[in-house]
Specification:
By secondary structure, this protein is an alpha/beta fold. 38% of the residues lie in helices and 16% in strands.
Length: 694
C-alpha cells in the first residue's frame, strides 16, 4: 500500500512538534533499530508515515498521545507548510485556506460557498469554485480573487486542500494561526517583505491617537496595515500597490483579522491614485533598493507632490513626499526606509532632505539596529513626518538610536522608542539620563558637520571628556614604562647546541611510551548540553588560550559516535591549522578534542617529556606529514618521525624553551601595553588632542 503524500511527515516537522532539534531525530534514527523507515522523499530529506512515527514516539516515551493530539498553532502551521512544500506549493495556499475557513465560519460567504467538516471531495471542490467566483464580485474583498491559490491547488489535488482545511478546523483562533504563518513563512521569497510582529506593532503604537483613516501607499505585504488596523479598529484602512499578489495577500490578512480594507490597484508614484486621497496616518514599508523608473512612473517637475524637490534615483524620496502630500492636517506619516536616506546625497537627495528639515516636516528619526528585519543586512530607520510646520517642535528633531540586543536571539526593546516619542509629543523633551535619545537642534543638523543619523549623535554624546582622555594617556604611558622597566631576563649564552645525542629516529606510532587518541567527530547528530552536565570541547581557540566562557561549547557525550577520550593533565594535544599544526601540553582534565585534533599521551615519563614531544610536532621539518586531508585537514601523528634522545637531554631542551617563553611573555606584556596606548592615543587624536615634547 502506498502512503499518500498528505500522510507523511518530515524530520523538520517532527522536531517542530516535539520542540527538539533535528539532530535529535537523526540521532534516534541512527541509534534505534526500530525507528520507522522513510516511505517517500530523498535520502537528504526523508518523509515518514505520520501515524507510524506517532505510534513509535508514544511507544518509546518520546511523546504522549495528549501531546501529539493537542498540537499548538505554531506546530500545526509547521506541519502544513511542510506538507505543502513537499508538494511544490507555497505559503499562499495556507494563507488562502485560513482566510476561506474564516469567511466560512463568520458566515460572510454565501451558504453554497462555505466549507464545513461535512464538505469534502467533489462537493468541496465545487464550494471553492463558487467561493472564488463570489470573491471576484463582492465588495467585501474589493473584487480581488483572494482564493486563487486554493483554487489552483484544488485542481491539482483536492485531497491536499481537504487535509489542510481539516487541520485548520482544529484551531479556534484563526488570526493567531495566520500570525504563526507569517513567522514561519518569512523565508519564502513572496513573504520576505513581511515585517516582524514587534516592529509592525511599534509603528502602530506611534500612530496619532485621533487617526480615523490609515493609508499604505506602496503595500508590499499585509503585515503593517493589518497590525495598524488591530491597534486602531475604528480607522478606515486603505492600501495601494501595483502588484495584484500584494493586494490579495493583504486582503486575506485583514479579513482573517476581522478588518475591512479598501484596496487600490496602481502605482502611487506614477500618479495612479486620485490626488484627493487623504488620510490621518500614512504608513509604508517601501521596497528596499528600488529605483525610480521614469519611463513607467512618469516623474514630472510640475507634480504638486514634489514640493521639496523632484525625486531622482531612490524610490524612497518619492514615497516620502507623496506620504506628506496625502496627510490630513495634524496627521503623521511613518515610513520605514533604508538608513541611507539620512545621509545619501545622490540624485538630489541632499537637497530634498534639507528642504524637509527646513520646512519642519521631520518630527522624529528612529534608527533600528542591524538584523531587526530578516533577509536583509541593510540598515533601517523609521521616519515620523508631518505636513510643513506641524511637527511638535519646529526647532528640534527627536533622534532615537535603538540599541542592539546583547544576545543574537533577543529582539530590540521597541517599547523604549514608543515611550520616548510619546514623551516628546507631550513635553518636547527627552530623558537626560537616556544615552539613546536626543533633542537635535535643526541648526546643528544643517551645519556642515551636522547629521540626521541618531548613531552619530550617540557617538558624540559618549565621547570622553578631554580631561579623562588626558588622564587615560598618562596611565597608558605609565603602564608601558613599567612593562619596559620590568625586563630583567636575558638569554643565557651558556646554552650551546649538542649534536649526536639521538640514538635513532622512529615514528610515533611505533612507540609504546606514547598513546594516540583521535578527537571526536562532532557532527550535527551531537547535541549541545549545559556546562553542568556536558563535556567541554577543546577547540583550536581554547587550545590557544583565546576562548572566553561564552566561546566554549559543551556537548552531550552520549550523543557522540564511537569511543571518546577526554584529556588528562600532561597530555599533548595536536590540532591542525591551515598553515600547519599547533601542539601544546594541556593540563586540564575532562576536555574533548574535535576530529581535527589528536591526544598524544605519554605513558612512560622516563622515556619522553611531553613538552619536548609538543615542540617536535611543531617543527617545520615534520609539519607536512602531520596533517592529512585536502579540504579539511586533520592531525595524523602516527607517521611522524621524531628523534630518540635521552630524557635528561629532552628536559634540557625544555628548560631552554621555558627561558625563551619567559622572554616572550615579557614581550607580549610590552605589546599589550603599547597597543593600549595606541588605542587611547587614537581616541585623543579623534578628539583633537595633540602630543608635544614636554
Amino acid at each position: 500500500m502506498t502512503t499518500s503524500a498528505t500522510d507523511t511527515i518530515s524530520t523538520v516537522a517532527i522536531s517542530e512538534i516535539l520542540g527538539v532539534t533535528r539532530g535529535t531525530i537523526t540521532n534516534w534514527k541512527s541509534r534505534k533499530d526500530d525507528f520507522p523507515e522513510p516511505v517517500a522523499g530523498t535520502p537528504r530529506s526523508p518523509l515518514y508515515d505520520r501515524q507510524e512515527i506517532f505510534r513509535w514516539l508514544i511507544a518509546n516515551g518520546k511523546a504522549t498521545e495528549k501531546q501529539l493530539r493537542g498540537i499548538g498553532v505554531e506546530k500545526i502551521v509547521a506541519q502544513l507548510l511542510d506538507m505543502l512544500r513537499n508538494q511544490g506549493l507555497h505559503a499562499d495556499v495556507l494563507s488562502a485556506a485560513v482566510c476561506y475557513a474564516h469567511l466560512s465560519r463568520a458566515e460572510i460567504l454565501p451558504e453554497a460557498c462555505r466549507w464545513t467538516s461535512g464538505v469534502y471531495g467533489t462537493e468541496l471542490s465545487d464550494a471553492i469554485e463558487a467561493a472564488n467566483v463570489w470573491t471576484r464580485s463582492s465588495p467585501v474583498t474589493d473584487t480581488l480573487p483572494i482564493l486563487t491559490p486554493l483554487l489552483m491547488t484544488r485542481r491539482q489535488d483536492i485531497d491536499i486542500v481537504e487535509r489542510v482545511l481539516r487541520q485548520i478546523d482544529t484551531v479556534e483562533n484563526l488570526q493567531s494561526m495566520h500570525d504563526a504563518l507569517v513567522d514561519a513563512a518569512r523565508s519564502e521569497h513572496s513573504w520576505e517583505a513581511t515585517l516582524p510582529t514587534d516592529l509592525a506593532a511599534m509603528v502602530a503604537e506611534l500612530l496619532p491617537e485621533a487617526a480615523k483613516s490609515i493609508f499604505d501607499p506602496y503595500c508590499t505585504s499585509g503585515s503593517l496595515i493589518a497590525t495598524c488596523g488591530l491597534h486602531r479598529p475604528e480607522a478606515d484602512l486603505t492600501v495601494a500597490s501595483p502588484y495584484d499578489s500584494s493586494l490579495e495577500s493583504t486582503m486575506r490578512w485583514t479579513l482573517t483579522a476581522g478588518l475591512r480594507l479598501t484596496a487600490l490597484g496602481g502605482d502611487v508614484i506614477a500618479g495612479d491614485m486620485p490626488t484627493n486621497l487623504r488620510a490621518d496616518a500614512v504608513v509604508c514599508n517601501a521596497p528596499l533598493g528600488r529605483k525610480l523608473n521614469n519611463e513607467h512612473q512618469r516623474i514630472y517637475d510640475t507634480d504638486p507632490r514634489w514640493m521639496f524637490g523632484t525625486p531622482r534615483g531612490d524610490m524612497h524620496w518619492a514615497v516620502l513626499q507623496d506620504a506628506i502630500f496625502r496627510l490630513n492636517p495634524g496627521g503623521r506619516a511613518l515610513l520605514l526606509c533604508a538608513k541611507s536616506v539620512l545621509f545619501n546625497t545622490m540624485g538630489g537627495a541632499g537637497a530634498i532632505r534639507e528642504s524637509l528639515i527646513r520646512q519642519s516636516c521631520i518630527e522624529a528619526v528612529i534608527a533600528l539596529p542591524p538584523g531587526v528585519v530578516r533577509n536583509t543586512g541593510v540598515g533601517l530607520c523609521l521616519l515620523v513626518l508631518a505636513r510643513p510646520g506641524e511637527v511638535r517642535d519646529p526647532e528640534n528633531v527627536l533622534l532615537i538610536d535603538l540599541a542592539k540586543p546583547e544576545r543574537r536571539s533577543d529582539r530590540p526593546d521597541f517599547s523604549t522608542a514608543v515611550r520616548t516619542y510619546r514623551r516628546w509629543l507631550a513635553t518636547a523633551t527627552v530623558d537626560t539620563d537616556a544615552d539613546y535619545a536626543f533633542s537635535a537642534p535643526v541648526r546643528e543638523i544643517l551645519s556642515p558637520q551636522g547629521s540626521l543619523d541618531p548613531s552619530k549623535w550617540r557617538e558624540a554624546a559618549n565621547r570622553p571628556e578631554v580631561d579623562d582622555l588626558v588622564q587615560a594617556l598618562h596611565q597608558a604611558q605609565t603602564n608601558l614604562e613599567k612593562a619596559l622597566s620590568g625586563i630583567t631576563t636575558t638569554i643565557d649564552t651558556d646554552w650551546a647546541p649538542q649534536t649526536g645525542l639521538a640514538s635513532r629516529h622512529t615514528t610515533i606510532g611505533l612507540l609504546s611510551a606514547i598513546q594516540i587518541h583521535r578527537g571526536a567527530s562532532l557532527d550535527r547528530r551531537v547535541l549541545d548540553a549545559d556546562p553542568e552536565t556536558g563535556v567541554p570541547v577543546l577547540s583550536l581557540q581554547a587550545l590557544n588560550g583565546r576562548a572566553t566562557d561564552e566561546d566554549i561549547r559543551y556537548v552531550d557525550p552520549d550523543t557522540v559516535r564511537g569511543n571518546i577520550t577526554l584529556t588528562q593533565p600532561g597530555d599533548v594535544v595536536a590540532h591542525s591549522t591551515p598553515s600547519g599544526v599547533v601542539a601544546k601540553v594541556w593540563n586540564e582534565a575532562g576536555w574533548l578534542p574535535n576530529s581535527h585534533a589528536e591526544i598524544l599521551r605519554v605513558v612512560d615519563a622516563a622515556e619522553f617529556d611531553p613538552e619536548f614531544l609538543a615542540l617536535c610536532l611543531t617543527s617545520r621539518l615534520i609539519t607536512e606529514p602531520v596533517t592529512v586531508g585536502s579540504i579539511v585537514p586533520r592531525v595524523q601523528s602516527k607517521n611522524v618521525t621524531i628523534p630518540l634522545i635521552p630524557i635528561i637531554d629532552q628536559r634540557s631542551v625544555v628548560a631552554y624553551l621555558k627561558q625563551i617563553d619567559k622572554i616572550a611573555a615579557y614581550g607580549q606584556g610590552i605589546a599589550r601595553s603599547a597597543a593600549y596606548l595606541q588605542r587611547v592615543l587614537a581616541d585623543a587624536a579623534a578628539s583633537g588632542i595633540a602630543m608635544a615634547r614636554a
